[in-house]
Amino acid sequence: MFKQVELDYAFDALEPYIDTLTMQTHYGKHHASYTANFNKAAEMAGVQDQSAEEILSNLDKIADPAVRTALRNNGGGFYNHNLYFSQLSPNPGNVPTGALADKINQTFGSFDNLKTELKRLALGQFGSGWAWLSANADGDLMISASPNQDNPISEKTGYFPILAIDVWEHAYYLKYKNLRGDYIDNLFQVIDWNKVSENYCKIIK
Questions:
Q1: What whole-number distance in Å separates Cα of residue 156 and Cα of residue 161?
Q2: CB 145 within 8 A of CB 123
Q3: Is residue 41 within 8 Å of 75, Cβ to Cβ?
Q4: What are the structural domains, with CATH classification, of the chain?
Q5: Distance separating alpha carbons of residues 190 and 92, to the nearest angstrom
Q6: What is the Cα–Cα distance from 41 to 56, expressed in whole angstroms?
Q7: Per residue in 108-155, pLDDT tens?
Q8: What is the DSSP letter of 116?
Q9: Of 70, 92, 124, 163, which is least surrounded by CB within 10 A?
Q10: Rounded CA separation 112/105 (Å)
């Protein structure tokens, strides 16, 4: 059974960058709904014993188009939000370290350049969706954006997300209204790059 990631911080711990009501609604309602519906769809498809990554990588093997869509939307919502919430912290490591820091500098020139490019992608995502920093098994990095609840796994890029920026309106609209850029800037204040580095090290071989 798929379960929401357990938060190691309180709903109000990310204030003033992410407000309490947004956390309560985003995690307690939206993410909970994706998780419940993903479990239902996985059971209908008979893939409940697979990992979320396996399911999202093999959506084309699901014959029923309605079930396939339910897995794509809710499985993506489950996976994407688990990553999003797990990377946040009230006491974050604000800069990458180690192998990830070296690869960021090699690929993007600097950490500031990476943040600029991620913000550009997040701002440029029309409507609901995500911006990503992803890695492959060779340690290469990629930034991208996806609509709705898609991600680099379901898009079959060969990369796995290590950082997620949620630009669905439910992630920021209660506090920031239409100021998506302000939300993105403040989100960077609570992203724990120690956790992003851990995600990176789990992927590379």
A1: 12
A2: no
A3: yes
A4: 20-86 (1.10.287.990), 98-203 (3.55.40.20)
A5: 6
A6: 12
A7: 999 999 999 999 999 999 999 999 999 999 999 999 999 999 999 999
A8: H
A9: 124
A10: 9
Helix H, strand E, coil C: the string for 81-99 is HHHHHHCECCCCCCCCCHH
Share of the chain above pLDDT 90, in %: 99
Residue 1 CA to residue 40 CA, distance in Å, equals 10
Q: Which helix (H) or strand (E) holds 188?
A: none
What whole-number distance in Å separates Cα of residue 48 and Cα of residue 196?
Answer: 27
| Mean pLDDT, each 10-residue run in order, the chain (205 residues) | 97 98 98 98 98 98 97 98 98 94 98 98 97 98 98 98 98 98 98 97 90
Point out which residues pair with 131 in neighbouring strands. Answer: 145, 165
**pTM (2 d.p.):** 0.97
